[in-house]
Specification:
With 409 residues, the chain is α/β, with parallel strands linked by helices. It is built from 16 helices and 13 strands. Helix 7 runs parallel beside helix 9. The longest helix is centred in the middle third of the chain and has 19 residues.
Length: 409
């Protein structure tokens, strides 16, 4: 690789297209030899000024003046950087105050609960790693800059960094609908997925998930009627701990609900993501459910999705998972992504990549390149966007593989 220096880092904050400032985007640009700038976008969720300060005050002093090809050292330093943040936390409430009943109220027979005062808070200062989305954007900009200097592609350079080789065929895609959205036969053979609602919207799932079972039953009938020979490879339900909430953590009842869903969709394989919170503190529930599924000889696959390094490691070590969904911009730099994927491979767990942070055409195309480089087993793209947006990762993979095939001749 020709000698090249990182001579500056630029930050541009973009105004959101909507009135919701939380969707504000930023672009970070690596300046190479004062002649080339490589831009990478990221969502800043209303923290654009803080992000710019982190780049100029922390990342630039560590990176500017360094050789561009010192990849591992640069990414290790990026992941090790920490910034000071101020948080507002609730103070514990004394037991006597928690009831809301004063001594005067008790003596006068006023046994109704008094209106509680506002919960007391205090501010604390802590140090934490730089925002994962920023670290991911900077690391992608670094490898993209190397690719441009070498006249190579992002997928090939990232595959070299991850110690892999590019596959010969694109990865399959699952297009996830917000429940109860109807799936379409837009990509035969791909997996189909639903994201369950959150908050009060979960009432739409019905008692014990009756509405979810109804949607899956209709999906199977739809496939039997209109596409008997081209069924999706599997059905994926991104539950976001709904089963845990709906059945008050009763693993036996969760098993019963999954048994009903499996009967409805047979012979299609069923994958459930995060039936419980994907945390080390709920590991016993994951283990018990896995044991129940094996005892009943059920084919339901358990998928986990978490950005936390320790939680992911604990779930992988427990041997309860069939797959793990990874959102690159939520875990950190491509170095962290590489390590997470390698942990999944060592545990025999499949890898699903997704872009959950307000995806754009550029980010979806990059997702295709990253998926090829880490050899993901599946890509999850949101169906809320237009169909043509959901096809961008597949098109990016096809172009990359065509170019790789041409160069190999």
């Amino acid at each position: 690789m020709p000698a090249a220096l990182i001579t500056d880092i630029l930050v541009v904050l973009h105004n959101p297209l909507t009135s919701d400032a939380s969707e504000q985007r930023a672009s970070v640009g690596l300046v190479i030899d004062e002649q080339l700038v490589v831009w990478q976008e990221c969502v800043v969720w209303g923290q654009g000024a803080a992000l710019a300060e982190s780049v100029q005050g922390l990342v630039a002093p560590a990176w500017v003046g360094r050789m561009l090809d010192d990849t591992e050292a640069l990414l290790a330093e990026l992941d090790a950087l920490s910034e000071e943040v101020t948080l507002t936390e609730l103070l514990p409430v004394a037991e006597d105050d928690a009831s809301g009943l004063t001594r005067r109220a008790l003596l006068t027979g006023q046994f109704w609960r008094q209106r509680p005062a506002a919960a007391p808070t205090h501010t604390v200062t802590r140090y934490q790693a730089l925002r994962p989305a920023l670290r991911y954007a900077l690391s992608l900009a670094l490898i993209t800059a190397q690719a441009q200097v070498q006249r190579n592609s992002l997928a090939e350079l990232m595959a070299d960094y991850c110690g892999t080789t590019l596959p010969t065929t694109p990865m399959p895609i699952v297009r996830t609908q917000q429940f109860p959205g109807r799936q379409e036969l837009w990509q035969p053979g791909a997996a189909w997925g639903w994201r369950l609602p959150s908050g009060e919207e979960r009432q739409r799932l019905g008692q014990g998930g009756a509405a979810l079972q109804g949607v899956l039953r209709q999906t199977r009938r739809y496939l039997q009627q209109f596409s008997p020979g081209q069924w999706p490879s599997r059905l994926l339900v991104q539950a976001d701990a709904w089963f845990d909430q709906a059945f008050d953590g009763d693993v036996g009842k969760v098993l019963g609900a999954l048994y009903g869903l499996e009967r409805v969709v047979k012979p299609l394989p069923l994958s459930i993501e995060n039936p419980f919170p994907a945390t080390a503190s709920r590991l016993d529930a994951w283990r018990t459910l896995r044991e129940y599924l094996d005892f009943r000889d059920m084919q339901v696959q358990l998928i986990a999705h978490t950005a936390d390094v320790e939680d992911a490691a604990a779930l992988l070590a427990a041997g309860v998972l069939a797959g793990m969904r990874i959102s690159p911009a939520q875990v950190g730099s491509v170095r962290v992504l590489r390590d997470r994927v390698q942990q999944c491979r060592a545990a025999g767990v499949s890898v699903i990549l997704s872009d959950d942070d307000a995806p754009t055409p550029a980010s979806l195309q990059q997702l295709g390149s990253v998926a090829l480089a880490v050899r993901a087993d599946l890509l999850a793209v949101p169906a809320d966007a237009a169909v043509w947006l959901a096809t961008l990762p597949a098109e990016a993979m096809q172009r990359q593989l065509a170019w790789s095939d041409y160069r190999s001749k």
